[in-house]
């Protein structure tokens, strides 16, 4: 009496038995399946076979996921990344011992039967019918391959993986139908090759080549008998027979495989005994997956490359599509990273800022004219330890960086100057620039609605009380005079600066536009990333031509096809004359201004220092005609004031942009440019103002009162200053006709 479920009807196992039993009697399905795959499968019989034929048999084999190799611009390996550590190899590159061992232990009649092994099925059905469940399987190597295809297609989705390996009647019948297709289309040798490349061998190793490298540090073609037997034994249960964690259990399993090979006469008993007596001689290679393994401190650049791939539509229309291509792997990605520049950057970082310091540093180098990122590093390594991090301090939040970037201080001032020059202001422009002053009461914006300093509450001051104007642009830039640039933006308005920064690709670290306010648009109070700053300054070096940053030069797939990669796009951000003028001004910063400690000796170079409120951030951004670099030093959490602090073993009462970031930049750039050409800037002659007299006041010609202010003193001969430009007068804040002390042009 057949057993029935509580709801009536036969159990799933008994249905399978009935299905196969009828097929046996009809001489159709099983008879056909038991024949070699090269012949007709004999599935033309009626009855239950018709239902079997209705099951779709279109197994779409996905490309096997493999490791992706990331290279520098010279072809050196930076890192390998993968979701599956696998290297696909042809069967001819697999040891004959390995081929025989896997067949002997997994499916010794592999070359004799078709898609399924009839004897094995009947044996398993009898056992499972007795237990009322699926307690014994009879999967052939072909069926196992089909199941692995399902698992591979499921990827890292746990629900899909569970569905792929579930032991149900429907799944078994589907596997059977696909196995028939595979046997007919591929043949035995190709099935064996595919099986060896797709199977999981434990220890993150997928496929025989990765397994051979992991356990024995050799290629699969060089496996010895005892080594091949051990790997073949792992497949049944990679965790149970893991030789790294349980050598004794793995040895027992290996010996079972060796004995089976002797029984099926793949080897002699003497060979089996000799191999059994050989200890498992592991030579384990640790998994080398991910950017954490990158050389020369390039882990963060490696991660940036990944972010570029996952975010750029050139690699797929959707995030899911791009992720699928990335996880499938098998790519060779040649990047823009210059090994010489990267080594130099990391060497300089290690010299000047220690991993254990309370503050960190980050540096990024970009090639003017191409946007190629040549170096990217930081003092806190890529990792999960106490003084390690996975946050890339050099880039924006959307690309794996900090939430907001870091305030850039006075390194923003060249953007203001370039906007003013584009508006027609001369490089000899003079402003009174007092030590302290309120922000202008009103400044024009792009929207037409002015920014207003309500009640003149927002004020600013220079670095020290000795910084009192009037100043011309050259000296104001060299000394980084805050009030000068606020007066400049008061005259030209906020909109030209907004437009200039947009042309230079300058955005906040969170990817948003800069706020249209005087503090972020003059004193750099908003967070920006080092990559953004280095690339913007590269525009000055490139005579006003801005190019978007790029990290990837080429990508090829496992089968040698080339993929399209995102190209840098360039556009004119300012005139040649403006860029040449900025270059001349910023040369002065290095020659005689706040950046003297950063100056390079053997080539033209220019740059700007920056320090923010509370000395929480210090910057140096500089460049030569052929390389631009930005260095940030500070607390990633913005909690550390860099006063009375030791950085890199050196004590500092107060940290300045030219004092700590400057030398980092100098050493990094020196090494990066060693042996490289030394082109010159196109310099512009900027007249120096008259020297001040012994009382600290500029000289004047008797009787010449043009442009006088404050008692008739003339700041510079022949150069006029807008009347009442200095804030703080008695009429400050009055409307038109009531004085212009606070009404800024």
Tell me about this structure:
This protein is 35% helix and 12% strand. It is built from 23 helices and 22 strands. The strands form eight sheets. A five-stranded mixed β-sheet has the order 2-1-3-15-16, with helices on one face. The longest helix has 18 residues, at 169-186. It is elongated and about 105 Å long. Residues 1-52 and 698-745 have low confidence and may be disordered.
Count, helices: 23
The total of beta strands comes to: 22
Overall shape: it is: elongated
What does the average pLDDT come to? Answer: 84
Rounded to an integer in angstroms, the radius of gyration calculated over CA atoms is: 36 Å
Percent in helix: 25-40%
Please sum up the structure shown.
The chain is α+β, with helices and mostly antiparallel strands. It is built from 23 helices and 22 strands.
Main attributes of the structure:
single chain; about 750 residues; alpha+beta; about 35% helix; disordered N terminus; disordered C terminus
Question: How does the SSE layout of this entry go?
Answer:
Layout: H1 12-26, H2 29-34, H3 48-53, E1 68-71, E2 77-81, H4 96-106, H5 118-131, H6 141-154, H7 158-165, H8 169-186, H9 188-198, H10 208-216, H11 225-234, H12 247-263, H13 269-276, H14 299-311, H15 319-328, E3 332-335, H16 339-352, E4 360-366, E5 373-378, E6 406-407, H17 413-422, E7 430-431, E8 436-438, E9 442-443, E10 451-452, E11 459-461, E12 471-472, H18 473-479, H19 482-492, H20 495-503, E13 527-528, H21 530-541, E14 545-547, E15 552-556, E16 562-563, E17 570-572, H22 576-592, E18 606-611, E19 617-624, E20 627-634, E21 643-647, E22 650-654, H23 661-673
Parallel strand pairs: 1-3
Antiparallel strand pairs: 1-2, 3-15, 4-5, 4-20, 6-13, 7-12, 8-11, 9-10, 14-17, 15-16, 18-19, 19-20, 21-22
């Amino acid at each position: 009496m057949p057993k029935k479920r509580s709801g009536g009807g036969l159990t799933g196992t008994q249905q399978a038995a009935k299905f196969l039993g009828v097929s046996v009697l009809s001489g159709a399905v099983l008879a056909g399946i038991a024949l070699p795959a090269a012949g007709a499968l004999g599935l033309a019989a009626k009855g239950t076979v018709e239902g079997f034929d209705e099951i779709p048999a279109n197994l779409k084999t996905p490309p096997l996921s493999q490791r992706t190799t990331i290279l520098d611009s010279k072809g050196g390996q930076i890192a390998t990344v993968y979701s599956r550590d696998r290297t696909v190899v042809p069967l001819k590159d697999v040891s004959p011992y390995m081929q025989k061992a896997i067949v002997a232990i997994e499916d010794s009649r592999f070359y004799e039967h078709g898609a399924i092994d009839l004897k094995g099925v009947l044996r398993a059905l009898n056992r499972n019918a007795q237990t009322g469940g699926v307690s014994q399987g009879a999967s052939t190597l072909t069926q196992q391959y089909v199941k692995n295809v399902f698992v591979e297609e499921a990827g890292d989705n746990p629900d899909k993986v569970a569905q792929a390996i579930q032991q149900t009647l429907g799944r078994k019948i589907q596997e059977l139908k696909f196995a028939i297709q595979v046997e007919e289309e591929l043949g035995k040798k190709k099935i064996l090759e595919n099986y060896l490349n797709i199977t999981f061998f434990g220890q993150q190793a997928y496929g025989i080549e990765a397994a051979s490298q992991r356990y024995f540090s050799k290629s699969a073609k060089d496996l010895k008998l005892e080594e091949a037997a051990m790997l073949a034994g792992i497949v049944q249960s990679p965790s149970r027979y893991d030789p790294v964690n349980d050598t004794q259990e793995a040895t027992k399993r290996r010996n079972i495989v060796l004995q089976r090979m002797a029984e099926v006469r793949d080897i002699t008993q003497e060979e089996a005994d000799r191999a059994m007596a050989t200890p498992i001689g592991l030579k384990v290679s640790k998994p080398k997956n991910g950017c954490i393994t990158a050389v020369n401190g390039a882990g963060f650049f490696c991660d940036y490359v990944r972010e570029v791939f996952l975010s750029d539509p050139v690699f797929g229309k959707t995030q899911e599509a791009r992720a699928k291509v990335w996880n499938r792997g098998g790519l060779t990605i040649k990047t823009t990273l210059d090994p010489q520049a990267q080594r130099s950057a990391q060497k300089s970082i290690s010299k000047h800022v220690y991993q254990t310091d309370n503050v960190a540093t980050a540096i990024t180098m970009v090639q003017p004219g191409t946007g190629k990122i040549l170096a990217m590093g930081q003092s806190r390594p890529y990792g999960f330890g106490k003084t390690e991090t996975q946050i890339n301090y050099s880039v924006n939040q959307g690309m794996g960086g900090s939430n907001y970037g870091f305030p850039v201080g006075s390194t923003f001032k060249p953007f203001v100057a370039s906007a003013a020059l584009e508006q027609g202001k001369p490089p000899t422009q003079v402003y009174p620039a007092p030590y302290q002053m309120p922000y202008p009461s009103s400044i024009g914006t792009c929207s037409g609605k002015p920014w207003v300093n309500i009640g003149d509450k927002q004020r600013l001051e220079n670095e020290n009380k000795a910084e009192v104007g009037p100043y011309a642009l050259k000296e104001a830039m060299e000394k980084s005079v805050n009030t000068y640039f606020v007066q400049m933006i008061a005259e030209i308005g906020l909109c030209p600066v907004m437009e200039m920064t947009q042309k230079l690709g300058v955005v906040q670290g969170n990817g948003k536009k800069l706020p249209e306010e005087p503090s972020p648009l003059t004193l750099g109070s908003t967070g920006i990333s080092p990559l953004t700053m280095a690339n913007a300054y590269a525009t000055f070096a490139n005579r006003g031509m801005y190019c978007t940053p790029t990290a990837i030069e080429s990508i090829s797939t496992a089968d040698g096809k080339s993929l399209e990669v995102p190209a840098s796009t360039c556009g004119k951000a300012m005139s040649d004359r403006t860029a040449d003028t900025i270059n001349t001004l910023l040369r002065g910063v290095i020659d005689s201004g706040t950046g003297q400690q950063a100056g390079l000796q053997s080539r033209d170079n220019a740059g700007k220092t920056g320090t923010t409120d509370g000395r929480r951030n210090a910057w140096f951004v500089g460049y030569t005609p052929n390389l631009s670099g930005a260095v940030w030093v500070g607390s990633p959490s913005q909690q550390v004031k860099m006063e009375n602090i030791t950085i890199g073993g050196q004590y500092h009462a107060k940290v300045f942009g030219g004092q700590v970031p400057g030398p980092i930049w100098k050493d990094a750039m020196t090494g990066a440019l060693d042996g490289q050409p030394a082109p010159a800037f196109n310099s512009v002659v900027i007249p120096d103002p008259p020297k001040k007299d012994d009382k600290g006041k500029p000289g004047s010609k008797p009787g010449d009162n043009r442009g006088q202010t404050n008692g008739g003193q003339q700041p510079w001969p022949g150069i006029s200053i807008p009347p009442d430009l200095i804030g703080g007068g008695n009429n400050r804040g009055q409307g038109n006709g009531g004085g212009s002390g606070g009404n800024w042009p």
